[in-house]
Amino acid sequence: MKRALALSLVVVFVTTFLFPVYAFAQYDRELEKAIEKAKAVFEITDAYDNFTYNMHKQGDRTVFDLMWSDEGNKLGTINVSIDTLGRITGYYAYTPNPGNDRPKLPAISREDARKKAEEFIQKVNSVPFEKLQYQDETQRLNVYDTSYYFRYIRVENGIPFSGNSVNISVNNVTGKVESYNCYWNYELKFPDSKEIITLDEAQNIFARELGLKLQYRIRYERDEYNPYLVYTNVYNNHSIDAGTGEIVITDPYYGIYYGGGAEEMKMADSGLHSYAGGNTGASLTPKEQEAIESAAGIMNEEKAEETARKILGIGKEYRMSNINLYKNWINKQDYLWNIYFVTEEVKRDMMINESYSVTIDAKTGEVVNFYKSEYLDKDKQPRYDEKESLKIATDYIKSMQPERYQETEYVTWNQQHYKPMPADEKPRQYYFTFERKTGGAYFPDNGFNVTVDAVTGSVIGYSFNWYKGELPKTEGIISAAEANAFLMEKVGLQLQYVPYREEDAAAKILPPPYEGFDEKVKLVYALKPNVPANIDPYSGEVLDYNGDVYDKGLVAQYTDIKGHYAENKVRELAAFGISLPGEKFEPDSKIIQRDFLYLLQKSVNSYYQYKPEKENDKELYSSLINSGIVKEGEQAPDSYMSRQDAVKFVVRALNFSKVAEIDKGIFALPFKDTAKIDRQLIGYVAIAYGLDIVQGNNGYFNPAGQLTRGQAAVVIYNFLNVR
Predict the structure, then answer these.
(1) Is 290's pLDDT higher than 90?
(2) Where are the domains of the chain?
């Protein structure tokens, strides 16, 4: 039977892959072994009566992707990836679970789920378990997740190597492993840690050769564009060789040898380039355009086209195919015309479309950006090197914006790295960045970007962004040396193994994984991962990527709940970010509406960011009203929450309000004070009681009684346990 199954699978295989005939028998046997091992390890029964597979090569290894399902689609699917050496590298199990997508608390603890994950890893036995280091997750959980996620990285000689890892997920209700993914290079050789520079030496090299730069970053708040100052690491993927002390680039992102960005890479084969850019906002309708043109002194379409053609020398052979007016989202008082010109001609018996995409300031006529998409004649070789192209770019900026050019600096830390090329070939384009620099601080979102065609020496791409608002002053800030000291103290360097690649310099395109390069490992000092390398220039605190003090996503640790009846529930909610700010929870204090609704909002929207403060009431209530939890006129943020009102909001969050408001005397309650419950809320209280969200006390519900913070936590906890 097994032999017949294997032979039938080979038929499928032949239609998909072209391998030599002599290899069929070999793959037949290897596939059969893979199926047998997978079924034994994962206890896959014959009830999974559908089977398919794929296969792919990873270097010298063949990997089979095996897929089981059942005819009735009741059991779900099981996918297993296993190589010809019997090493299982992937597992995914899906089980149908009809139900709703309400937020819920897990049925098992994270600690128990981790035990199951580690038992699974050892059962699969594809990598040495003793060489795995668990990455402790102190960050808050999410009530919408149905699984716990665990990550383990490889450790050699006591030094982490995050390039190899095991990722595994465990269902937080059933406790079953749902996915397992192992990326592991079994051929790597790891250099030892003898004769390396010291950590102090590495820190000095970092400060001298890399070091933090003072920058303006953007904080987006309430649709506002607010710059703030930060010392930050601009040299991404740069590390310090632990043996030599040299700066090395680890795992760079490569462009192809034509140069340019992602769109150029996509279009290289067709001989065309494409571009889209500009800090624009929503497109305006013709009526809106007409109103704005007449009211704000904005040039009309005809003038905009004439201006663009004149400044960029766009001839009549290019017809205008599209024009739109946008509001500038950075400088909201400004408007932008975006115009698209296109021409068609026959070259080498091919119809070639070439185009200009142009954006100009609708008042001043300044060119904000443009890109010329043109035919690439690969027979013409580049005549300009990088130095010459840089001068062309510099001169062009000076001709367009001479005064603002003086406030910029040519920077190289964010340039793309190009894949090695044969010695007789040169890049066909160069891309240059000039960042605005004010008061010693760089502004990465401001300045100029220029693309130069190295064949013709012409500028084919240009963008100009300049924030016109007031920037924070740089007086009174700590020095760069002090910022680096804070970085070492609060983030720090550590010894790490990192991958590096010796690539085939003759390759013109990026190789697929495992091909075209020889992966090796280098020992380096690098910044510790998972903590932002951003230092507040005033306080020295670590900042997140929105300019707020980095809180590490840690769970709130209250100092005043030990021994309280609500302690465990408060702690579990806090693990999911459902908590109130401060070191004390004050469980016996009365809770106000703002704080209760904030806890409820965090329960139904874990990504809600605003703190429960008066200035954020508009966002809080707007969100709750839009979701139907609160109705207009019910806002009373500083009032104490009654028990019956708390129930009302919670039942609405369950989307049971239509049932709760049925007024036909169908609800019955066991409370001695049922008559005191607001008649319109009887159904709400009955539903909450029936779902064990609230209980009485000595037979009384006390509907008008004011809820304590501890009681509120119990209500929210019970709400999240409704199955």
Answers:
(1) no
(2) 1-82, 274-375, 567-719
Contact (Cβ atoms closer than 8 angstroms) between residue 499 and residue 520: yes
CA distance 683 to 661: 6
The answer to whether the beta carbons of residues 219 and 445 sit under 8 Å apart is: no
Nearest-CA neighbor of 622 among 102, 104, 222?
A: 222
Q: Where are the beta strands (DSSP E) in 292-373?
A: 319-328, 335-347, 350-361, 367-373
- Identify whether the C-beta of residue 227 lies closer than 8 Å to the C-beta of residue 443: yes
Question: 664-705, pLDDT tens digit by residue?
Answer: 789 999 999 999 999 999 999 999 999 999 998 999 999 999
User: Where in 10-110 does DSSP place strands (E)?
Assistant: 50-58, 61-69, 77-83, 88-94
Q: Ramachandran region of residue 588, left (φ > 0), alpha (ψ -120 to 50) or beta?
A: alpha
Radius of gyration of the chain (CA): 32
Query: Which residue in 555, 552, 558 sits closest to 583, CA to CA?
Result: 558
- Taking residues 398-409, report their average pLDDT: 96
| DSSP per-residue string spanning 180-244 | EEEE--TT-----SSS---HHHHHHHIIIII--EEEEEEEEETTEEEEEEEEE---TTEEEETTT
The percentage of residues in the chain with a pLDDT greater than 70, rounded to a whole number, is 84
- Comparing 288-292, 383-387, 442-446, the range with the smallest average pLDDT is 288-292
- The model's pLDDT over 189-205, given as tens digits with 9 standing for 90+, comes to 999 988 999 999 999 99
Average pLDDT, whole number, for the chain?
86
Query: Do 566 and 683 touch, CB atoms closer than 8 A?
Result: no
Distance CA 125, CA 87 (A): 8
Highest mean pLDDT pick, 42-46, 502-506, 544-548: 42-46
∠ CA(273), CA(278), CA(281), 5° rounding? Answer: 130
Q: How do the residues of the chain divide into helix, strand and coil, expressed in percent and rounded to 5?
A: 30, 30, 45
Q: Which CATH class is domain 274-375?
A: alpha beta
Torsion of CA 612, 551, 209, 258, to 10 degrees: -70
Q: Which of 427, 422, 415 is nearest to 258 (CA)?
A: 427
Query: What is the spatial distance between Cα 601 and Cα 609, in angstroms, rounded to a whole number?
Result: 10
Task: Say how far residue 557 (Cα) sits from the centre of its chain.
Answer: 27
Could you report the per-residue pLDDT of 637-657, keeping only the tens digit for each?
999 999 999 999 999 999 999
Q: What is the pTM of this model?
A: 0.79
Look up residue 470 and give its DSSP letter: P
